[in-house]
Design goal:
alpha+beta; 10 helices; 5-stranded antiparallel sheet; Beta-lactamase
Length: about 450
């Protein structure tokens, strides 16, 4: 039986240590009773307390919803995940050979590199729209933008996992095509209403009817700073959901088995057609359809995801075999929600897990001997994340970013953890380092 008093102490400690403005957590453990934990405030001045009904932007947690709608469309015979992307967007240059399929977009292995599209997406909440740069509003705009960039693909479709928001934007365009409705209306009709997610909306404008919406906040030297909610319709399928943790639990509930929205067979497909994650060289980890997957003991799995955006951090995870799910929302930037989610899950499961989760404290071995350590030094980057440098500093291989310098902590010859993320250097058959897998993204090595 779960000791919720102990859990409350754990969460309270994390809230204090992280100095979060406001946090909402919902846990569902093997029954229909939701346990809610609410802390702090949803505004800068601390006057409006977070409640179980407070809406938060949850960013990339939206991707599972998009994947779910794709699976519904397949069930209705409207599409197949094995179809080529070119069937819907024949003008997309990098997909014209027919090799890139919808399932590659779902598992982030299309070969698309990190792109700059979010910097050009039209923001409905923006006070001033620039005339000096494109304003990407539709999927057609995005396709034209990708064509103009003419960037080199990371790898052939299916060969390498690298997280791509643009891939899910394209899936959103396909959803609009087959259902003949805007994405927010499809999501409402196909997911929000059937699951009784009455405290949820897609996009800031659609959420205006809700009174309690947490303000995105960022810590500065002068204190908390309010951030505007980014309301870009192009990116709704990749990160447009505003919701509360109890509604997120309802969304995850479709993974428990047969339902009107998702059959048992479709659940298995979403959680077993895995793409290896480049920064985690272990069969324990993979990426399914809009979800990260971890293998636990006795053939059990944990399906989970995080969401991050300036002023917003979120997590949800489910162990379907145990009917255990956790959802977290925080109105602060870069909160360690994956660590907190795994901490809660580990406490409830106690000795059930059989692996060292890289988001928890781990004792690392001494820096291993590498055949050619100089091959790792250099500059890596993408249009999405910018450039980082790998250098030797005080006899320590170090990652230098705009936010600071971080030592690489190796667990093997070329992988480990750095700056709170897993990493692996990608080395080709000629023993040349060609890229750095960092978290869920791959940063090519630059000339």
């Amino acid at each position: 039986m779960t000791d919720y008093n102990r859990l409350n102490k754990i969460i309270t400690r994390e809230m204090r240590d992280g100095n979060f403005p406001g946090m909402s957590i919902t846990i569902n453990n093997n029954d229909d009773v939701l346990s809610n934990f609410c802390y702090g405030s949803m505004d800068k001045n601390g006057r409006l307390p977070v409640t179980s009904d407070t809406l938060f932007g949850v960013a990339s947690l939206t991707k599972f919803m998009t994947a779910l709608i794709i699976m519904q469309a397949q069930r209705l015979g409207l599409l197949s995940v094995t179809e080529p992307v070119a069937h819907y967007y024949p003008e997309l240059h990098c997909a014209q050979d027919g090799q890139m399929r919808l399932e590659h977009l779902l598992t982030h292995c299309s070969g698309l590199p990190g792109l700059s599209s979010r910097f050009f997406a039209k923001d409905l909440a923006g006070q001033i729209q620039s005339d000096s740069k494109p304003q990407l509003l539709t999927t057609a705009d995005l396709i034209s933008h990708i064509n103009l960039l003419a960037v080199a693909m990371l790898a052939p479709p299916g060969a390498l996992h690298s997280y791509s928001n643009e891939g899910y934007c394209i899936l959103g365009g396909i959803i609009e095509t087959v259902f003949k409705l805007p994405y927010p209306e499809v999501a409402k009709k196909r997911v929000l209403e059937p699951l009784s997610m009455h405290n949820s909306a897609i996009g800031g404008q659609q959420a205006q009817g809700f009174g309690a919406i947490a303000t995105p906040l960022q810590h500065t030297e002068q204190g908390l700073r309010e951030l505007p909610y980014w309301d870009a319709p192009l990116f709704y399928p990749a990160g447009g959901l505003l919701t509360c943790p109890s509604d997120l639990i309802r969304l995850l509930s479709v993974l428990r088995g047969d339902s009107e929205l998702l059959s048992q067979q479709q659940c298995q497909v979403m959680m077993t057609r895995l793409q290896p994650i480049a920064s985690r060289p272990s069969l324990v980890f993979g990426y399914g359809y809009g979800l990260e997957i971890e293998q636990l003991r006795d053939d059990h799995i944990l399906a989970w995801h995080t969401g991050q955006r300036p002023g917003l951090s979120s997590f949800y995870g489910i162990v379907p075999e145990q009917q255990l799910s956790v959802a977290i929302a925080i109105n602060a930037s870069d909160a360690p929600t994956a660590h907190l989610g795994h901490t809660i899950l580990n406490d409830i499961l106690s000795d059930f897990t059989d692996i060292d989760l890289p988001w928890l404290t781990t004792d690392y071995p001494d820096d291993p001997q590498r055949e050619n350590p100089d091959q790792l030094r250099g500059r890596y980057g993408s249009l999405e994340l910018g450039n980082v440098d790998v250098v030797y500093c005080d006899d320590q291989l170090t990652l230098q970013t705009s936010a600071g310098s971080y030592p690489f902590e190796f667990q093997g010859q070329q992988h480990g953890a750095v700056a709170g993320q897993t990493f692996q250097f990608i080395v080709n058959n000629q023993h040349r380092c060609t890229g750095l897998a960092f978290g869920l993204r791959v940063l090519p090595r630059l000339p």
